[in-house]
Here is the input.
Amino acid sequence: MEATKTKRKRNHGFSKSNNATNNNRRRNNGRGGRKKAVSSIDPKMLVKKAVQKEETIYQAPRGYDEMPLSPNLKANLHAKGFKRPTQIQNDTIEHLIAGRDLLGVANTGTGKTGAFLIPIIEQLLNAPKPFQTLVVVPTRELALQVEQEFSALSNRLGLYSSSFIGGTNVNSDLKKLRRKSHLIIGTPGRLMDMVERGALHLKDISTLVLDEFDRMLDMGFVNDIKRMVKAMSNRKQTMLFSATVDKTQKSLINELLNNPVEVKVSTGESTSDQIEQDIIKVPQGADKYNMLLDLISDRDFEKVLIF
Here is the structure.
């Protein structure tokens, strides 16, 4: 294995100056006396110094060709330029193909989507009869990403998927559910809408994937998840992927998973010690967008994620 030193990353929050905030309050108060909501979070809590650590670059001991996968699936992986699995994929694929429940803890960008799609496709190719998988994700963007990845990995394999997300035409979604899909992907709100309309039958779901589980809990989807799980009377396998896991989630995880395999690629802590966080105040009259462009043009910013 080759070890390289991780460069310090910086995470900048932007906040308006006090004068700008006061001006906004005065303007809002002039419109019917409505007060602007002010966060109770102390900005100092968002400031954090990075800790320099040695990072080990993971090199899988085998390629996809050496894994127990069908030749056509391997061909699709190669067509996408994938030669070796990521760590979360390498450590979980055999367990998932065998039908085990799984708790996978790994950060964003570690190949979690492939970690559940590859074994699901392999199972579908070898199953004596077709089955349905439900993938629940917290955001529309992630749902579309999962659908695109499934489409590429299942190319010419006779497998089909459908996604259901907020902001799309409900009638179109109802039509999609009339045709059979091997993989159903969606956000909790739209999925429950389809259930309540009698269009999505959760008793038909054999495999459940909860991706970005911690984010779904943070966004308040816990009750929707519980309702969906309760309705899945024929659920045989559950995969739960999360970047963080804390003690408050343990009882819920135990309800969802049956004798699971646990694979931790990351620590499961809420924030990486290798990310430096600080706040930059935008002066009154300044353009926040131009300030952002100026920051990311700095050569120290090698990888930037903007929410």
